[in-house]
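Support request, please re-run this one:
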Amino acid sequence: MVKRVISLPGEHIIIKDNEVFIDDKKLNEGYLDGVNTDGNIDMIVQQNHIFTMGDNRPKSGDGREIGTINIDDVIGKVYIRLYSFNKIGTVK
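Re-run finished. Output below.
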């Protein structure tokens, strides 16, 4: 399962009105191409945890449903994107 790390330990995440805010700053998510981010979240990410979301927000089982993830449970890192074909390349 591949998810995007949205918020780090100690950060305040708010999701409301289809927008995501980290420490009161709106998150620029240009990679979503008009996809809505449903949910109502207002939390401080606990120590040694991260908050993740998938890019397919309407169908992604992510932090909005399961909560934060312990950093010790993260087992990989994405280095290259192969799909969609017009976006092939390395991932920062």
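Helices lie at 63-66. The mean pLDDT is 91.
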